[in-house]
Amino acid sequence: YKTEMFSVKGDVIDDIDISSFDSSIKLGNERASISQIGGVVRRFSELNLAKSICNDLDKRDIIVLDGCLKGLVKGEDRYLNELFETGVEKEIIISSLAKTSNRFLDKRSVLNEINNVDCGLDKWHYNIGKENDYDVSVAKLNKNSDYVFEFNIYEKQADMKEAVLSILAANSNDAVFPGYPYGLTLADK
């Protein structure tokens, strides 16, 4: 599949060639369907938009992506690396929050296992460690939430983790989905 991303002005900003036989997107032995390609292009577009938004933000502003900072699809690392580089250059903090995680301990979800431990705190985070170019934590952002989330922050900005998590927690009081930042609920829609 060959796709083109356009700016609002109609200028082509990127061409993407995606093989439906790419192992990072195909399902078992079946080639990827065109509907999967839309999701890949959407993710690449989100990362490209986040990079361009860095030019309009002030130093120490924060970008929080819905999902993780891991490149799951061939070519995604390029967009992530460009975003990281721009974030460092412009001093914009790059982070993400994911409702789900593919991390497991003996066939059990890491998020569920950590959530089942009662630490006695209303809000907390637990650092899992570094992966690729980012720091990984599990966070509970609201005492009324039944859920924990995977939080990622670019490794060169990990010293800002506490500040970012504090801001996310302050924005995680929506009655419909307590514990998840309202802005990300809208972004997810």
Q: Decide which structural class fits the backbone.
A: alpha+beta
Sequence stretches where pLDDT stays below 50 over 5 or more residues: none
How much is the radius of gyration in Å?
17 Å
Distance between the termini: 26 Å
Helix content: 25-40%
Total number of beta strands: 9
Specify the biggest β-sheet.
Answer: 5 strands, mixed
Shape: globular
Total number of helices: 5
Overall pLDDT metric: 84
Which band does the percent of strand residues land in? 15-25%
Element order: H for helix, E for strand: EEHEHEEEHEEEHH
Strand order of the largest sheet: 3-4-9-8-7
Q: Features of this protein?
A:
5 helices; alpha+beta; 9 strands; 25% strand; two-stranded antiparallel ribbon; 189 residues; five-stranded mixed β-sheet
Would you write up a description of this structure?
There is one protein chain. It contains 5 helices and 9 strands. The chain has a 5-stranded mixed sheet, sandwiched between helices. Strands 1-2 form a two-stranded antiparallel sheet. Strands 5-6 form a two-stranded antiparallel ribbon. Helices cover 31% and strands 25% of the residues. It has helices at 34-53, 76-90, 110-115, 161-170, 182-188; strands spanning 2-6, 12-17, 62-66, 93-98, 104-105, 108-109, 124-131, 134-140, 149-154. By secondary structure, it is of the alpha+beta class. The protein is globular.
